[in-house]
Amino acid sequence: MDKTKWQRLMSIDPLGLTELQKRNLVDRLKRRVTFIKHKSNGRTYARIYYLNLSEDAIHYQGSSHRSKHEACKINDINQVRSGFTTTVWKKHLRKGRITNDKIHLAFSILYDNNRHSLDLLADSEEIRSQWIQGLEYLIGRYRSHVRSHYEITDRWLWSLYSEADHDHSGHLNRREVRRLLFLLNIELDEREIDQYFNQANIRRDNYDELRNLDKDEFISFYKFVSYRPELIKILCQYNGSTPKQLADFLAKYEVLSTLSHANPLGQPPDALANSCWKSSSKSQPSNAQPRSKARKKTDTRRSPSLTKTVHDNNYLTVEQFQEFLQKEQHMRDVTIEDCSKLIAKFEPSDEGPTCEEIGVDGLRLFLLHDEFCLMNADKAHRVYQDMTRPITDYFIATSHNTYIRDSQVYGDCTPETYIHALRTGCRAVEMDCYDGEDGEPIVYHANTWTKAITLHEILFAIETQAFAVSPYPLFLNIENHCSYEQQGVMARHLKRIFKDRLLNEPLRSKVDRLPSPEDLKYKVLIRSRRSPKGKVAADPKSNRSDDETEPNPKSYHPEFAKLIIYAQIVSFTNIEHTISTQKCIHSISFKESKADDLIEADSPEHLDMIKLTSKHLVRVYPGTKRQNSSNINPMTYWAYGVQMAALNYQKNDESMCLQYGFFSDNGGCGYLLKPSFLLSDNPTFDPKNAVQRKAKRFTIQVISGQHLPKEKNAPSDSDISDPYVEISTYGIEVDSTKHRTPAVRNNGLNPIWNYKCHVDIY
Questions:
Q1: DSSP-based three-state secondary structure for 179
Q2: HSE-up of residue 284 (Cα within 13 Å, Cβ side)
C-alpha cells in the first residue's frame, strides 16, 4: 500500500494523547467554571461556563443561575486564542478597561467564521490552559469524521440516556423512551416501541424491571433502533453468508422492516436483499472460516457492545476484510498484516482484534475515516500540481471586501475576517483604504454604515496568518482612496509589517511573462492601480465603470506605486485593445454585470474572454446590488479562465460551499492549475458548445445516513425530519445537473435511500 496513504489511515492523534488523557480533557470542561465575560460595549459579567453532556456545545448559566443558554456550538468554533488578540480585547486595552498584567488569564473563542468572539478571563492560568487544550481537542475531533467507539457509547449515548431520564431514577420508562426517540429524530408507533422495548428488556425479575430499561438494556435498545442493514449486507456479501442467513438475521429486526426507506430507482423492494450477492449459487469462499484463534464469547450483560449481535457470523475475518478492501476500496496492495493492524485500530470490541475479525461498528468507523471521503485524500493533503507555470495559469481563491463582517451596508469592519479567510486557504484579500484621523489610513465601505478600522490593524492580522496554510503568494487587493500623504503611510506600514516578504521589485529585469506561484513563494503582492501623477481614474461606484479603481485620486505616491509590480490594475476598453496594448503585468477588474456581458456575447466573440484570461490576471467581483453580501456563482467565471472570482467569505451560501470544495484540491493551497483546454494557445474549448465532446458518465449512489439533524438543528423541534439528499453537479451549462432522492418519512436517525443517478460530464 502507498506509504503516505497508510500513514494517514493509521495516523495517531496529532496531540499525542492517550484515551485517558482525552477523557480527562473533556471532563475538565464539563466541570462548571466561572469566567469573566468581556463584551465589546465595555461591560463585564461573571458567568458559569461548561461543556454540555453531549459534548457538542459550550453552555453558560445566566445571572439567576437557573437559566441555561448556549454560548456556541463546538462545530462552529474556528479558533481558540490565548491573550489579548481580538478586537474586543484590544479595544478594552486602549480604553484602560483592562491591563496587560491580566494577559496570562485571557483567552478567546472565535466562532461563526471568526465573525464573533467569546472573550473570557479565567481565575488562573491553569484553568485557561485546560480550557484551551480541551477546546482544541474537541475542535479537531469534530473536524475529523472519525469518532472512537468510546465517544459514541460511553459519552454520547450516556448523555442521551441521562437527558431522557427526567425523573433521575437511573432507568428509562416507556414515556421517557418515547421522548428519547423524539430527540433521536425518529418516529415509531406504539406497537413498534413496545417491540423494541421488549426485545431490549431482559431483566424480568420483578414488575419494575419489566417497566424500565437500565443502561445496558438502553444500549441494546439503541442497537435495535439504529442498526445498519446496509453494512450488514456488506459483511454478509464477503463472509460467505447465504441469502437465507442474511434474511434470518434481518428478521431479528423485523420492526425495522416496517420503517419507510426509499428504494433504488427501477428496483422492487425485494431486489435490495439480493443485490449484494454475486450469484445466487455462490459457494462459501475458502477464506470464510475464522483464523485459528477462537472467537471469544462475552457476557453482554457485563460488557454491552454495539458490535455484538444475535448473529454469530456478523463479522469479517482478516482474509475476508482484505478481499473487501481490494475489491471495493481499490486498496490492491493491502496485505494480511496491514488488515490485521487496521482491525486493531478500528474494531471496538475486545474479541475482534484478538481473533482478527471486524464487525459492523469496526467497519463503520473504518469507512468514516477521512481517507474514504468523496474527495481524493491524496490530492486534498498535498500540493501535487505543477506550480512553475505563469501565475495567470491558475485559479486563485479570492475574497471580496474581506474587512466586512456582515452585510455591505452596516456592521463592524474587523481584522478577524481576514484571519478566517486566510485560515481557509484564501490567497487574495481586499481592503478599501481611505484617509483617517491622525494621519492613519482606515478601511471601511464608503457611503455605508460600516464602522471603520485602521489599516495597520488589518495588516498586523494578515501578517500572523499570511502563510499559515499555504506558502504560495498572497495578493492584497487595495482599492486606494487615500491622499498622497496617507498613501506614503500605507507604503511604510506595508514595508514595516511584512518586511522582506513584501515584493518590492521585479524578480527579473525583463518581464515578458508573469512569474509562477513557485517563484513567488512566501511573497506578499500588492494589486492596485499605479498611474502617473495627476492621472484621473474611473469611478468604480459608477454604473458606467467597467473596472474597480479609485475615484479621481490627486496623485499616486511613488513609494506606494513602486510596490505594485505584477498586478497593476488598468482601465478596460475592450478585450482586443487590452490584449494588443497592455503588458502581462497589467490586471483587469470586472463588476459581475460587465463580465456577464462579455461571456454572454454571441459566438465566437464570447471566447475572447478566455484569450484575455490566458494573458492577464482578471478579477470579477459582486455588483453593488448585493448589499446582503450574497455571492456570484464562481463557476460561471472559472469556465472562462477567470483567475480571481471574488466571494464574500462571511456568507455560508452555496457559492462558498462550491469555493471550499473546489479549492480543497491541490492540498488546499489556494491555487489550482487550470485544465489543459484553458491553457492551449489555440483553444478549441467552447463553454457554450461542449456537447460536441465525448461525455464521461459517472454513477453516484447515495446509500444511507445516520443521526441527521432536524431542520432547525434543534433537538426539541416538534417536527421529525423527512430527509432527502440532493446531488448537484457544477460546471458549464451542459454539466450542471440536479438529482434528488425520495424522502424517507419520519426518520432522521438512520434513513436508507439506495438511490443511484447517472451524470454525464463533458
A1: helix
A2: 12
From 3.20.20.190, 3.40.50.300, 3.40.190.10, 3.40.720.10, which CATH number describes the 391-531+562-678 domain?
A: 3.20.20.190
Residues acting as catalytic residues:
400, 445
Which pLDDT tens digit goes with each residue over 644-664? 999 999 998 999 999 999 999
CA atoms within 13 A on the CB side of 8: 17
Q: Express each pLDDT in 268-301 by its tens digit.
A: 333 333 333 333 333 344 444 444 444 443 333 3
pLDDT for 222 beyond 90:
no
pLDDT, the chain, mean: 84
What dotted CATH number matches 150-226?
1.10.238.10
The answer to whether 41 and 53 have CB atoms below 8 angstroms apart is no
> What is 690-761's CATH topology?
Immunoglobulin-like (2.60.40)
**Phi and psi for 520 in degrees, rounded to 5?**
-100, 20
Nearest to 749 by CA among 302, 309, 221: 221
| Separation CA 354–CA 291 (nearest Å) | 10
Helix residue ranges per DSSP H, 693-737? none
Q: Which residues pair with 357 in a beta bridge?
A: 317
Cα-atom radius of gyration of the chain, to the nearest Å? 30
pLDDT (average), residues 524-543: 60
pLDDT greater at residue 274 or residue 121: 121
pLDDT tens digits along 160-177 = 788 888 888 888 988 888
